[in-house]
Design goal:
PH-domain like, 2 domains, elongated
Length: about 150
């Protein structure tokens, strides 16, 4: 690990006193676990670099909510290209299939997925032929969840 390595994220925090969202640049230094924050709008330092043991590298991914000194920050974007290159591939991905008999409830299903905190990045509606469905499931044929 590079001694001067730092990761930058754009975050949002809802300020209940002002009833508005504030945007910050959150800098995380993995070498010593310290953080620093800058107000994006005013271009001012909001929090000087400070050691903060409750934030870890595995917590830092787009869409996650992290607490920094009792402020719940939502990580909305990468703050620089270095961070995007280094941490961008760490997103967890999954595939969801909706069976034909549930198509009438697809709106409700998508709403449940979003409320659970997942982000849908690619959505495609298609009907698989019997051969495509068989080919897709061939690796899982012996698995108990298909029985």
């Amino acid at each position: 690990m590079n001694h001067s390595e730092r990761f930058v994220f754009i975050t949002e925090w809802y300020d209940p006193n002002a009833s508005l969202y504030r945007r910050y640049e959150l800098l995380y230094y993995p070498e010593d676990g310290s953080v620093e924050m800058h107000d994006v709008k005013n271009h001012r330092t909001f929090l000087k670099r400070t050691k903060y043991d409750d934030l870890h590298l595995e917590d830092l991914f787009i869409g996650n909510k992290v607490n920094v000194f009792s402020r719940q920050l939502v990580l909305t974007d990468y703050g620089d290209q270095y961070t995007a290159r280094q941490l961008g591939s760490r997103k967890e991905k999954t595939l969801a299939l909706i069976k034909p008999d549930a198509i009438s409830k697809v709106g409700e299903i998508i709403e449940i997925i979003n409320k659970a905190g997942f982000t849908i990045t690619k959505l495609k509606m298609m009907t698989l032929s019997r051969k495509e469905a068989t080919d897709f499931h061939i690796d899982h044929h012996s698995k108990p969840f298909l029985k």
